[in-house]
Amino acid sequence: MNPQRRTLLKTGALAAAMTGIGMPWLARAAQKVRVGYLHTPAVDGQIWTGLETGAFATQGLDLEMIKFTTGLELFQAMIGGSLDMLSTGAVVSNFPARGQGKVFLLNNVEYATAQLWVRGDAGIRGAADLKGKKISTTAGTTAHVFLDRVLKGAGLQEGKDVQIVNQRMTEAVTSFISGAVPAVALWVPFDVTIKQKVPDARKLVDASAFYPEAAIVGGWAARNDYYEQNPQVIQALIKGWVQANDHLLAHTDEAVAVLQQKHYPQVPLADMKDQFKASKYFTSAEWRAKYADGTVTKWLQQVTDFFVQTANIANPVPAATYFDPKPYLDIVKA
């Protein structure tokens, strides 16, 4: 265990002992939880904030953070048993619809994190100009879900009117930079590289153009067996997340600066602030209302419908079944 994590655990345990909160849970050794994540602010912003502030340590959790490149790889690892739970983007609406994973917590709406960039020399002024063009992206991800909305809005059909080049996002961006493709659908912070390497590149549209009718949400899912067997861990994780989320929103400038300095040093602070704004965050109380009135379930189902269609999921599990709002609603009171 690194010194920082050890310090956080000690601090959290002391605070809990002094206040009398969570003492039975903390009386035991910290519970290690293997968490897979994507290194993008929309996915790991609350996690790093919670680790920096001791929010998860206070709940007796020792999060072992394991980074992945795409949500597809995250779920494959979790299904294989090498992760207990994960935090990701739109893919959280994919595998659970196949019966692989239980969704229990939402991070944000990826309001403008998915973006479509075009080269300045490609002659693309609007979405209709994409006809006959190649577009690089990572299939089955937030960027792909967003791109599908863009194409449908322009009356274009994937595979017929445009050619989708499926690559890992790093390779997709490289293809765009090299000029191999005139357009790329990505998620932040990959836009930073585009702006640095292709000065005449232009953001054609981002996901905010389709909110709230086509909102893309990101959040947490746990392995089915882990979720059933560890309700106390799920509750502790939610409690830590609630504290981190509300700290992030109440002290945004400070929290984002810490995120940039310690976890995104390659991203200029100004760009980091823009990326934070690209997501739509809600206070824990605001999330509670959206859990309770079915808004979250609706948002999840909209993206599940995309995966059912594009991935030919047979007998899909509806969001109303694979998403469990009860632990959150029990913890965050109205």
TrEMBL record:
SUPFAM superfamilies: Periplasmic binding protein-like II. PROSITE patterns: TAT. The keyword Signal applies. The keyword Signal applies. Residues 50-255 form the SsuA/THI5-like domain. InterPro entries: SsuA/THI5 (IPR015168), TAT_signal (IPR006311). GO terms for cellular component: periplasmic space. It is found in: Periplasm. Keywords: Signal. It comes from the Bacteria. Gene3D superfamilies: Periplasmic binding protein-like II (3.40.190.10). Belongs to the bacterial solute-binding protein SsuA/TauA family. This is ABC transporter substrate-binding protein.
